[in-house]
Amino acid sequence: MLSNRFPEDPAQLQPAPLWRRLAAMFYDAILLIAVWMVTTMIYMLLRGMVIGSEAMQMEADAGKNIGDPLLSSSLFLATFFFFAYFWRRIGQTLGMQVWRIRIQNPDGFKVNWSQCLLRFFGAAASAVCLGLGYLWVLWDKEKLSWHDRFSLSRVVYVPAKPSEKKKKK
């Protein structure tokens, strides 16, 4: 059975600096665009199978398919599950792995689904407020963003293991 606790001592891990968080966000944004493209392709294929390609062409010609709420909902869910899956499973999205940062509870355990949901909506609120929730780490004594506080989680820097350092030399 897999443990829900990360191997490092949480007291020894430092908060992730803002620049690492932003770099990981940039990497994840590129990956997220690919997820959106695949989600849209699947949605359009399924929609074409249900209503037919002629009906889709007529809607497109009339401009009726702009702002499709079902597609928007699908993209929203794909975005949430992209982040939540990685946060729950290994504490890191692919971008976070590159920049050696991880989301975890203060006690060193993995976040749960409700924390993922709170974090996701908190991050959206942080972004909507012109990024102030992200920049908050610059003033916060514990180096926490708004979504860290909302979800009762932490983003920590995970240093390289000694075996990884030897491989680089």
Short description:
The chain is mainly alpha-helical.
Work out the count of structural domains. Answer: 1
- Helix content bin: 55-70%
- What portion of residues belong to β-strands? 5-15%
Query: How is the biggest beta sheet arranged?
Result: 3 strands, antiparallel
| Rounded radius of gyration (Å) | 19 Å
Count every beta strand, where a strand is a DSSP E run of 2 or more residues.
3
Question: What is the residue-averaged pLDDT?
Answer: 92
Order of helices and strands: EHHHHEHHHEH
Overall form: elongated
Structural class: mainly alpha
Unreliable parts: none
| Order of strands across the main sheet | 1-3-2
SS field, number of helical segments: 8
Termini, distance in Å? Answer: 35 Å
Describe the structure.
It is built from 8 helices and 3 strands. It is mainly alpha-helical and 169 residues long. The chain is elongated and about 60 Å long. The mean pLDDT is 92.
Secondary structure elements and pairings:
Layout: E1 14-15, H1 18-51, H2 53-62, H3 69-89, H4 94-98, E2 101-104, H5 113-128, H6 132-135, H7 146-151, E3 154-157, H8 162-168
Antiparallel strand pairs: 1-3, 2-3
Distinctive features:
single chain, 169 residues, mainly alpha, three-stranded antiparallel β-sheet, 8 helices, 3 strands, 61% helix, elongated
